[in-house]
Amino acid sequence: MKSQIKVANANLADCFLQLILIANTIKKLPSRGIVEFHQHCIESFNKYWDKFDPKIYILAYFLHPAYRARGLKAVYWKTITTTAAQIWQNNGGDRRSCNRLLAQMRNYELRKSPYNQKFNSHLETPMSWWLTIKDKYDYLPALAIMVFSITPHSAGCKRIFSTLGWLYEMESNYDVEELIQQYSLDNELEGNTL
């Protein structure tokens, strides 16, 4: 995990996915014989999770062309669209452009043109992918570029990964598909705790 997060082009979606991986690892820890340790891990994770506002991370996860909110339940659509609309309006967007932005988000989710382009994580970044998207109104690409311009380097984020990062070493690397099959992201987000 450390190498994944310390990559220069790490983004909020990557951090979100790593947090879910850590939570998954903690849940899989055997509790027999080490109940206190297991409980300590859960409490430590929850302590740091509570300091996060996951809405921007969920939006970034949605906007990441490799993830596109896979594994999130439909109930998070409201969180995604509300967060996008708030960011858009806080950056000078009016009601009309916000409505167009939301329409573009629906087209993106449905993979309608121009949002149906493939993404290759070995050859491009989410930022470079979004920079190539051309729509009549470039509202969604502009929002995505804003979100992917946020560098996840806050002290709180670093503290979580340094405190709990070793847990990830006990698990093999998952690809996104395998993770989503094994563990529903909804479990972590419903109560914002394990």
Short descriptors:
disordered N terminus; elongated; 61% helix; 0% strand; mainly alpha; 194 residues
Indicate how many domains the architecture comprises. 1
Poorly predicted regions are: 1-6, 158-188
Class per helix and strand makeup: mainly alpha
- Report strand %: under 5%
Rg measurement, Å: 17 Å
Main pleated-sheet profile: none
Overall shape: it is: elongated
- Measured between the Cα atoms of the first and last residue, the distance is 19 Å
Tally the helices.
11
Helix-strand pattern: HHHHHHHHHHH
Q: How many β-strand runs?
A: 0
Could you estimate the helical fraction of the residues in percent?
Answer: 55-70%
Mean pLDDT: 77
Secondary structure elements and pairings:
Layout: H1 2-6, H2 12-28, H3 35-49, H4 54-63, H5 76-90, H6 95-109, H7 126-131, H8 139-148, H9 155-168, H10 176-182, H11 185-189
Helix pairs in contact: 2-3, 2-4, 2-9, 3-9, 4-5, 5-6
Q: What features would you describe in this structure?
A:
Helix content is 61%, strand content 0%. It has 194 residues and is mainly α. It has one domain. It starts with a helix and ends in a 5-residue tail after the last helix.
